[in-house]
TrEMBL record, chains A, B:
Domain of life according to the entry: Bacteria
Family, as annotated: Belongs to the peptidase S51 family.
UniProt keyword annotation of Transferase present: no
Lineage: Bacteria, Pseudomonadati, Bacteroidota, Flavobacteriia, Flavobacteriales
Protein name: Dipeptidase PepE
Transmembrane segments: none
Keyword annotations of the record: Hydrolase, Protease, Serine protease
Amino acid sequence: MKSIIIASTSTIHGSGYLEYLLDELKIHFKSANEILFIPYARPGGISHDDYTEIASKAFKTIGKTIKGLHEFENTQEAIQNAQGIFVGGGNTFVLVSQLYKNNILLAIQNAINKGTPYLGTSAGSNICGLTMHTTNDMPIMYPPSFKTLGLVPFNINPHYLDPIEGSTHMGETRETRIKEFHAFNTQPVIGLREGSWISVEANKLTLKGPLNARIFEYGKAPYEIETNSNLDFLK
Amino acid sequence: MKSIIIASTSTIHGSGYLEYLLDELKIHFKSANEILFIPYARPGGISHDDYTEIASKAFKTIGKTIKGLHEFENTQEAIQNAQGIFVGGGNTFVLVSQLYKNNILLAIQNAINKGTPYLGTSAGSNICGLTMHTTNDMPIMYPPSFKTLGLVPFNINPHYLDPIEGSTHMGETRETRIKEFHAFNTQPVIGLREGSWISVEANKLTLKGPLNARIFEYGKAPYEIETNSNLDFLK
């Protein structure tokens, strides 16, 4: 019975780290006192210790202890025994490279499938999709594969950004990029705006948060879905 | 005696395809009647024929014929015999995947080293750097390597974008992304704003166009350099 939160971002503008999600996280991690944090995405190249400290501070406010995966000798065992798992954002290429290097993708899948509650934000959400082909990140590291956890039957585009009105910049809009993805790939993509998340409970997928999301299906015009919509149709 | 133009973009806002560069291209390709176009980056998933047609129209205005590499049976020979080479923009992951698949990176390097004039725009400029680790593109295809032509001893970041004042979006700025690149890599990066290009003549590297560029060197604060500056110091 999977229990997953796939969040667009850790932080919304003008608010603290994870602050907008804390009420939800209290419920999501209700059976966990200690949560295993995977700091591999290293935003801005930050150290594992420093990143774990940031996560610790946020979770302390809801009475949870955080332990970084880098503190364990046996990472497989740490994942298997975790009461809850949180994979934070940063760079998806760095994160996925480290997950493969440490050979822990299967261990994470197994833990989630047996019911360990999981939280992903940004890069930690990208890896919940079938592949990381729709990340926004710069490819600063070369991972052995773009295949990710496949916890949901589509790809995630976190920090989804609408075209900026009146922009004179000639770089591609996000929508153009995802359309290009569909020139070479067929799985659906969900553009999650900052403040949105997907809740997976058992096998029920729901869009949460105050905003709509944008759905990109192969061969269809992109369209909006409202918050609290069931996403099972994308299966 | 290399002769290369590495342009940030094919098109500046409010102007036609390659229009801002045509006077420069007349000189750059003065010895070429027919130019070999490599359409592999396929912007928006466009076909090789359609993309070649766009390039043809622009070059026709300065009296040059374009032939697409996909029209040749023997691509190695086509590159070897080319009077000039143009690699257009689109998706760098798609472009680099195709260059490896068709095994033509070495042929392009050899042609350029023996003096065949080369023009790259956007993705076609990214591949002039040491690696494609600093592309802005979405990783919609998985290339066998991120290593590129290494025609200049640094990496390119085309369509360089300054932070947008007052933005509430929590995604990384371009500068943050390049700083993250330097957490894991040491080569310099040049942020080329739209309208800028690097001219390589023999072994002299010069910044051209109306704008400054932003230089990111490992372990240093980023800084601006003025147009017409010599870039040989980055060697």
